[in-house]
């Protein structure tokens, strides 16, 4: 039934990175820069951010933005005191509930009209993300705050403009596509920096292009890049890296293309991953400016996904992590876990009603005509040979925060037997954000953990 899938193998043995004495000293400095201080004013924060973007210091660790509703206010409010850059997931934040608001009776008489569905879907997203931003700002008025909005989404521009007008976000992160039209939109928001999430130097070249083709597109260019490795969780970038190139090859090519900061994300799980990414080249590192954590942040006590689900799915080695080429209506491959039976039963159950509940979340305005891959939802234009894939990923993703057994759980490969996930009795335990980041960056194992 499922084609083009690839079970992503478990982690190889940890490859310890042997540091020379000099490298160890350098790492000591870098490590201290990975935790943001508590800022007392906007000016102080701005000075700090300026230094980060000018490459004068490393960025604090990033909790990469995860939608739908995974990196929410509660999670970001835990990331900030743990010294990280909290990035709210800004895609589908206000999605209406499929089971109730978009519900369809046998006779179909409860379906809201398409106009209403679009209205509900899109307006709510905007309102919901603005509220989340406000809530974080109330707790942390001067912290560095980011929002991640997927370019592939239909209300992308509206959301970006709303966030820009609100003026509370420091850095916008844009994934799932090359955001050419942002150059123009972002002219209006000089206070908000933006980073494009890419997976190759080719994407950087396209986004930095100032040639004739781009003249009408505005003057701003990304302030930096997040390189997302192909083993990252969630939707993977559309300009896929060539399979024969390593992450290091891609990073080197990107560094040759731009002197702007680069954050490395995808498969960062241990201190040695962070060291390899951040140490300067003379010490065997890649010399990037920061690291982003996705899956590791998802498996924390403050994540909205219930702890029991994290134990039953994420920390259950019997359920494999799979990369699926044809799983998402965005047309992008994606990586994560599902309970096969429950998932396919739900696909079957929703088969006849999903289309009627559609709120056109991926339909692009005219501006997107240069980017046909994302111009429309693959679900709507489903081809007969893709009949098994007639489902909308939306309800399966937002079901994750409710811990539904049939949900899609985006994640990359972890070692479920890591001490950070086992208590002294060998039982699965979900760490807090602060414990998780202490484990990764400082190699600290919590008191309650099985240290053997
Ligand atoms: C549950 C989940 C949701 C995600 N949602 C998004 C998203 O909305 N936008 C995005 O650019 N990346 C998304 N990602 C990717 C992460 O932001 C991050 O780049 C990636 O997880 C890094 O790889 P790692 O999981 O191996 O650490 C998601 C990842 C997860 C696990």
Small-molecule binders: flavin mononucleotide
* Shape call: globular
Query: Which oligomeric form is depicted?
Result: single chain
CATH class placement: Alpha Beta
C-alpha end-to-end distance: 42 Å
Number of domains: 1
How would you portray this structure in words?
The chain is of the alpha/beta class and 452 residues long. The protein has a single domain (5-442), classed as Aldolase class I (TIM Barrel). The chain has 14 helices and 13 strands. The strands form two sheets. Strands 2-3-4-5-6-7-9-10 form an eight-stranded parallel β-barrel, surrounded by six helices. Helix 3 packs parallel to helix 4 (114-139). The radius of gyration is 21 Å and the shape is globular. 46% of the residues are buried. It binds flavin mononucleotide.
Short descriptors:
TIM Barrel; binds flavin mononucleotide; alpha/beta; single chain; eight-stranded parallel barrel; 14 helices; globular
Short recap of the structure:
By secondary structure, the chain is an alpha/beta fold. The protein has helices at residues 21-33, 42-53, 73-79, 114-139, 156-166, 182-185, 201-208, 247-257, 271-278, 295-298, 307-314, 340-350, 393-398, 433-442, and strands at residues 5-7, 62-63, 85-89, 145-150, 171-175, 193-198, 224-228, 234-235, 262-265, 290-293, 322-324, 334-337, 409-410.
